[in-house]
Amino acid sequence: MHVLVVEDDSLLGDALQAGLRDRGFVVEWVRDGNTADTVLRSGDFAAVVLDVGLPGRSGLDVLKRLRSRGQAVPVLLLTARDAIEDRVTGLDAGADDYVVKPVAIAELGARLRALVRRGHGLASERLVAGELALDG
Description:
Blueprint: E1 2-6, H1 10-22, E2 26-30, H2 33-42, E3 47-50, H3 59-68, E4 75-79, H4 84-92, E5 97-100, H5 105-117, E6 126-129, E7 132-135
Parallel strand pairs: 1-2, 1-3, 3-4, 4-5
Antiparallel strand pairs: 6-7
Helix pairs in contact: 2-3
């Protein structure tokens, strides 16, 4: 399973990359929001692990841009922000899961597998069939 990890902390990013690879994932790791946005435009990923506090462009901005392009790749927000408001904001912005750091690699792997098992779902609340559009 090809996964994009977007994490600016070198120690954590390295640990996530190594831990997920040990569990059979193919991992690409980038360290800032601008690079993540660029890579997501052209990359084909089964899932994304996305930090919220990133240099260049916030994780939430990356997520909103991803969803505005209609990309339905599952996104797991992995962040130190643990307030209920932050969780609600992240999920409402289009995240499929929200996990507060620190997280056990085994749990992260299981959550990624579960997201991919559920399929890619809808990239937005808007359903379009021909000229008919329904907003959620």
